[in-house]
Amino acid sequence: MAQMQDGWSLQKDASGIKVYTKEAGDSGYKPFKATVLLDNTVEEFASVMYDVDGLLDWGYKIKTAWLFERSGDSLQIYYAEAKAPFPYKNRDGIYKNVFQWNSKTKTLLVKINLLENYKVVDPDLVAIKGHGYWSATQLNSGKLEVTFMMEVNPGGEIPAWMANMVVDDSPYYTLLNLREAINKPKYKNKKYSFIK
């Protein structure tokens, strides 16, 4: 398998999407990173990220999602439930997204942290733990380079070896669906004060 910097190995290269994984750390679960070039703007990408309800259209196996809190354009906290394969229980989590714009590199960074200390929404579900980021860089060519990285512990009884077998599915289908969703009219012609 092709190697990338910092120990990332290419696992999948299809439909213009590249998915990399890294050796598992103490948790036993492999982190992933996926990249794609889009014919869109960073403002359109930001619009998709802010639309929590829209996550149902493009997030991999997302069953429900809703916004808990938003602070200006820089912070949002939302809940999401993801479907798990039978016989396992669905997974859920509270996601904290922090938005940072770098005007020099023309990059929007969205830091993701799953909050562990929160009121249980559904005791029948299993809370996941993890962190990661989205980055979207507006290239001189007009293309948008998007990267999605996560390190997740799905919790419960799903063994690490089983999760690691399909670790490339989530980022691949997420980016595949995002590429279609970002072109919806509702994400066009949006402006954000911090993106300059």
Automatic annotation (TrEMBL):
What SUPFAM superfamilies does its record include?
Bet v1-like (SSF55961)
Task: Please give one Pfam family short name.
Answer: START
Q: What Gene3D superfamilies does this protein map onto? A: 3.30.530.20
Name all START domain ranges: 4-167
The signal sequence is none
Q: Which GO terms describe its molecular function?
A: lipid binding
The superkingdom of the source organism is: Bacteria
Its Gene Ontology cellular component terms are: cytoplasm
List the PANTHER family: PHOSPHATIDYLCHOLINE TRANSFER PROTEIN, START DOMAIN-CONTAINING PROTEIN
Protein name (database record): Cyclase
Origin organism of this chain? Bizionia arctica
Lineage summary: Bacteria, Pseudomonadati, Bacteroidota, Flavobacteriia, Flavobacteriales
